[in-house]
Design a protein that fits this description.
Elements: H1 4-17, H2 30-50, E1 58-61, E2 66-69, E3 75-76, E4 85-89, E5 96-102, H3 110-118, E6 122-128, E7 133-139, E8 144-152, E9 158-166, H4 170-182, E10 185-186, H5 190-197
Antiparallel strand pairs: 1-2, 2-10, 3-4, 4-5, 5-9, 6-7, 7-8, 8-9
Helix pairs in contact: 1-3, 2-5
Length: 210
């Protein structure tokens, strides 16, 4: 597809420059993070087990800490998907969604990362939701619209979701793109959840002192 260039460049830009239930404005305490990590890990593993069914439209990446619900009937591009994320395509209309995790080596703010993305695309327009979420739109210059959502995880890493579709089919795809990007969630990756679960004071058999 011609529009692959823009969608593919976003994760590359994020990597060179350095996916939530609700916007995060303040960092949680260690106790809150540990409790949330334990609960999220359990829910994510349960969801992943359900995902083994062929009919499932839910994708859960426990290792990287994000999940998303995909449109019915879309198919995975196994050649483009990796351990860090997935690519799904609408087999009939030339639309696709790409959701990938990226390490943020430079610990850049989301504002800095969005600025890097904007330099690589045309007509990028959007809004920040707190300090850790951005939603916007762009055009790839080849007749395709791009809906974008970025989420910054507590450790600074970034989950990027892009939904690309033909501009002439905007009426058909805008609602689908909004629902799909809204379904993107982030949670504590497996290693952080396990570390929190094994931290002193968090053992399941701990007994309070009298």
């Amino acid at each position: 597809m011609k529009h692959v260039a823009l969608a593919a460049c976003l994760p590359i830009l994020l990597l060179a420059a350095c996916g939530r239930t609700e916007p995060v404005a303040d960092m949680p305490t260690q106790e809150e993070l540990a409790a949330a990590a334990n609960a999220a890990a359990a829910n994510a593993i349960a969801s992943q087990q359900q995902d083994d069914a062929p009919e499932s439209r839910n994708y859960v990446n426990v290792e990287r800490g994000f999940s998303i619900t995909l449109p019915e009937g879309w198919v995975m591009d196994k050649g483009a998907s990796t351990a860090d994320g997935i690519v799904y395509q609408d087999p009939g209309a030339g639309a696709d969604v790409r959701v990938f995790w990226q390490k943020n080596d430079g610990d850049q703010t989301l504002q800095q990362i969005v600025e890097s993305v904007s330099n690589g695309a045309e007509g990028v327009d959007g809004d920040f939701v707190g300090d850790n979420e951005y939603r916007g739109t762009a055009n790839d210059g080849e007749g395709n619209n791009v809906a974008i959502r970025l989420l910054r995880q507590p450790d600074g890493s970034i989950v990027t979701a892009t939904f690309v579709y033909p501009e002439m089919l905007s009426e058909q795809y805008q609602g689908i793109a909004d629902r799909l990007l809204t379904s993107l969630r982030i949670f504590a990756p497996r290693d952080q959840a396990e570390a929190a679960a094994g931290a002193p004071g968090n053992a399941a058999n701990a007994v309070a002192a009298p």
